[in-house]
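Forwarding the complex inputs:
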Amino acid sequence: MTATDRIASALPKFLAWGPDFVGSTRPAALMRIGIALIIFARFGAEVSLFNATSSSGVALGLAFFMVATMMLVGYMSRLASAMTGLALLGMYFIGGAALAVPGWAHHHVYLLAIASILLALTPCGASYSVDRLRELGHGGAPPERGYLWGQRLIALQLSALYFWTAVDKTDWAFLSGQRLEQIFVWTYTGRALELFLIWPPLLALLSIIVVAVEYWLAVAILVPRWRRFALPVGIGLHGTFYLLLPVDTYSITAITLYLALLDPDAVHRFIDRIQGHGVAAHRL
Amino acid sequence: MRASDMPRETSPLRLLPLRSSLDARAQPAAGESGSGRQLAGSLGAISRRVAFVAVAAFLLLGPAPGQLFGAHSFFLREWIMFAGVGVGIPKGVFTLHTADGAALPLTPTQVVGVTAYPQIRHYLFDKRVFEDADIKLFAGRVCDQAQEGERLSFEGFIGTRLGWRAVSVDDICALPDPVEATDEGSAP
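Prediction (whole assembly, two chains):
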């Protein structure tokens, strides 16, 4: 088989997996709602009108709450998700980089922005949304189905995130436990878990485990037969980060985006099953 | 023609269906010709595929210039979470040498005058040590209160992105005043 033949046989599979991928819109809708809630939790207080010190701050607050609310309830869902993502990117670039607003240029803010923009590439308003309610009100029964290439891109974003953060840690400073010790010296000195600093070899072991898991996750979350192991491991990793380090919304955002790794039709069927559709539907 | 019957020179792109299942299910609207709908579907499929590959390349390879080649750009996000946390934090022993020759050991947090370092979240700790001279800033509280004839020394390490750096300073308070240093860090 020549290289051309191999490409010819692999390309349709790639297209079916990626840009032409079609499935239930419920996971994308759940991500839309989850990411919008996380955005509210992260920025709601910070950009509220009571915190505004200028007219531009008031304008930012009004725009933020308008588009984030639209994203949450699913009104003009794709546009709202795109606008929310762009608002966050504006806060990240202008607020975080140019104006040096503390915390706005951090990784977790960029992840929220890019997730919102990628969700706008999915039909995230076809389920659990005002958009769907309106269509039903007009007598239509829109299918909860559509192109999910944006969802595949979210999966690739997660994979890239794991890969590149592992690359950053692949040096002697991290693998020897020194960088983790530095993090823990800052975090735990004078606090209850200062005991982490007693035995540096444990930190070296933890460092090696973290890097190995992140390299593995970069691939495993994309391989169907590994995914059943990768998801619990990934959730465990993010849960550990959340408990031990001030990662802000990073962990909960990544875990929410794990919905993009699941078979959307299986998620759809699961929701039907736990809601008793076909067994107890329409009964109160 | 089946794929296996095609000549080798044929581009693999020719083998691809330009309409996927959703396109194929769509029926032409009233007043719209079937071929027009088909063309729109094909163009939509091509644009979607091109956009997918472009965005995927950005997501997957965007960090490469900065993380592999040091060509940093704020527009190409690097995934280096917590890489800057702990940078500038000392690990070791400060010693206050009194005028009568006594030596009083102090921990770094005792020197700063805190029980614990401020939480990492916004990198709002302005006493981090990026240059040797910055250790005077870190120990400013003790230097300000030092009596005539007293001397503050440090023996230990300072956190850097490359690991711990050994530092030994004999008389911190006699160091020249540090210039204001900042570190953007790499926060969560």
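Residues 34-61 of chain B form the longest helix (28 residues).
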